Amino acid sequence: MRYYPICLDVKNRRCVIVGGGEVSARKTACLLNYEANIVVISPQITKEINALVQGKKIEWIDRNYQGEDLKDAFFVVVATNDHELNKQISQEARDKGMLVNMVDSAEDSTCILPAVLSRGSLSIAVSTEGKSPALAKKIRDDLSVIFGREYIGFVELLGSLRQIIKTTFDSQTKRCIIWNKLLNSELLELLKKGRTDMIDTVLKRYGINRRKD
């Protein structure tokens, strides 16, 4: 395996996208979900990118790429329709030690972007190391059937229980047993059915009280 999977914090980081076509629009929308500071550089942009510009959600530099555009960039996406230009920009970014994704060449990238299934704080990323993006997307879509939207609430619930379980049970072994029981309990099914009123009943069965008496 060539690529080491990692979750990257891009919130409030300068992310430069060179190119204004459909691929750039998809990359822009994805990065925006993670609160990145996005700068798109291109003399032409799609209507989707333009809508984000008009809404002041991203910055647009209306011209062709120039070398100084990479200054202070944390992450660079290269997505013009000129392969040789893409290679040039990617090389400049790599020479500066930057993270760069060249959309038409995994070999010229320092990182590649997986197909991601998001359920709130739960993210499931699928990668074929650039060999078959279509397969990665198919697997992601297949997983979306298994991991439904009830996982949004499930992850939040489990997160809220971490400190409670830590203070309630002083034995690490006991905590592991409790976590295993919770993960295999009916909590997920209750969330799927919208029966949040039953959650505390289940938790108390395992000695967990979310409310101070």
Helix and strand topology:
Layout: E1 14-18, H1 22-33, E2 37-41, H2 47-54, E3 59-61, E4 75-78, H3 83-95, E5 99-102, E6 115-119, E7 122-126, H4 133-146, H5 150-168, H6 172-183, H7 187-192, H8 199-205
Parallel strand pairs: 1-2, 1-4, 2-3, 4-5
Antiparallel strand pairs: 6-7
Low-confidence stretches: none
CATH architecture identity of the largest domain:
3-Layer(aba) Sandwich
Strand order of the largest sheet: 3-2-1-4-5
Strand segment tally:
7
What report would you give on this structure?
This protein has 213 residues and is an alpha/beta fold. The chain has three domains: 1-113, Rossmann fold, CATH 3.40.50.720; 115-146, Double Stranded RNA Binding Domain (2-Layer Sandwich); 150-205. Helix content is 43%, strand content 15%. The chain has helices spanning 22-33, 47-54, 83-95, 133-146, 150-168, 172-183, 187-192, 199-205, and strands at residues 14-18, 37-41, 59-61, 75-78, 99-102, 115-119, 122-126. The protein has a five-stranded parallel beta sheet, sandwiched between helices. A two-stranded antiparallel ribbon has the order 6-7. The termini are far apart. The model has no long low-confidence stretch (mean pLDDT 94).
